[in-house]
Amino acid sequence: MKHKIRIHLADDHQVLIDGLTNLLHTVENFEVIGNSKDGTTIYQDVMQNNTDVLVLDISMPKKDGIEVLKEFSQKGFLCKVIILSSYDDLKIIKEVMKLGAKGYLTKKCAGENIIEAIEAVYQGQEYYCDAVREKIFFSFTQNNTKLNKKIYTENQILSSREIEIITLISLEYSGKEISEQLFISIHTVETHRKNIMKKLQTKNTIGLVKYALKNNLINS
C-alpha cells in the first residue's frame, strides 16, 4: 500500500482549514491528520501525529509562525514546513528561508499551488510560488549591483571561485554573463555550477540563493 503523505494544517481561520482539508482530500495519497489554531501546541501536535508536511500560517495567536519555526530550528525539524501566508513581505520570506522552511506560498496562490508544493517538499525539494520567487530574485538584482566580497570561512564548503560563481548565479547572471565577468569559458561556468550543486546537495537555483543568503554572500 502506497504511503500517504500526512499533513498538518496550522491556521487560526477555520474556514481556511476546512477549505484546504476538502481540497487535499481529493488527492489519493494525501491525508490531513490534524490542525492547530494557535502556535503554542504545533510542535507537540506534529510530534504526536507523525506529520510529514506542516502547512503553517505566519499570523497565529499566542505564538506566531516565525516563533514556531524558531522552535523547530532549536528542537529539530520533525517534518517539512511550508509557509502559507497573506504576507509577501520580502523580509519575512528571507527570515523563514533562513529558519528552515522548505516552501512559501501566498494565500492568493494556495488553491493553485498547494498540492504541487506538498508533493515537492515531501520529496525533498523546495517550493516557492511564482510571486514569491520573483520577489526574491528582483530584490537580489536590484540591491546587489556589486558583489559582497565577504567570504564565509567557517566550515567553508566552497572554494573562492565557487563562491564567486554562486554569488553571480544568485544575482541572476546568465552563464554567458558570468563567463564575461570572471574571464572564464561558459563550459567552466557550467562545470562549477554542477560541482556547487553537488556539494550543497541542491537541485535548483533557490537552494543556491538560500546558501548565498545564509552566508552573507549577497545583501538581504
TrEMBL record:
Keywords for this protein: DNA-binding, Phosphoprotein
Domain called HTH luxR-type: residue spans: 151-216
Positions where 4-aspartylphosphate occurs in the chain: D57
SMART domains, per the entry: HTH_LUXR, REC
Domain of life, source organism: Bacteria
InterPro entries per UniProt: CheY-like_superfamily, NreC/VraR/RcsB-like_REC, Sig_transdc_resp-reg_C-effctor, Sig_transdc_resp-reg_receiver, Tscrpt_reg_LuxR_C, WalR-like
GO biological process terms, semicolon-separated: phosphorelay signal transduction system; regulation of DNA-templated transcription
Gene source species: Flavobacterium pectinovorum
The protein's name: DNA-binding response regulator
UniProt GO MF annotations: DNA binding
UniProt domain Response regulatory: residue ranges: 6-122
Pfam families: GerE (PF00196), Response_reg (PF00072)
